[in-house]
Request: fold
Amino acid sequence: MKTDINISEFLSSRTEFKNKFSLREMYRATVYMPRAIIKMIENSKSQFIDINFAKRLQLAVTEVNGCAVCSYGHAKLALRQGISGKEISSFLSGKDHFMKPVEAKAIMFAQHYADSRGYPKKFTYDAIVSEYGKKQALIILSIIQIMTIGNMFGIPFSAFQSRLKGKPYKDSSLVAELGLLIAGICLIPIAIIHGVLRGLIGLPNVKLDKSLAKEQDGFQES
Reply:
């Protein structure tokens, strides 16, 4: 219980955005949702990626994006699944004290995906495919995509929730928070149809940045 309280206090201290997303970014991310959900359902049966590994990926994404409500919800679930409070706090603080070597590249990719706002470098995804195989890489990608969508909706909701508690976020307004949430929810059905059509014509379920970057060698060697 003490650990749960500490996590709650850590997350409730947020009074400004760590990351903000536009309605266009929310729509683009939601387009990936149908096939990502299918992959996660398949994984629930196959267990290619175990539930604790998936939780660590989700915590890594939400730490980068700074979604308080998502972080708290997933931290509580992780506690129930037996992940220690110290490990959860480490992930939510952006530290790697508890990162397992076998999961390191996947977690680094999750952080990179969030840092790149859902537009990761192609070589980083290729490294994941090389490390885990295509089937597992697609599941890892899907877990990250679903968490990203949750963060995009959770961030304005977190700001709205904080406002109700008398702690409005800096550089935010009630109109912006509710407007983004309502507009995003209204666009979900259209985005889902868009995503299904993309799948039917064989388009990939991710957009990759094919340009090279200086950090390429560091990512491949880690």
Summary: The chain is about 70% helix and 0% strand.
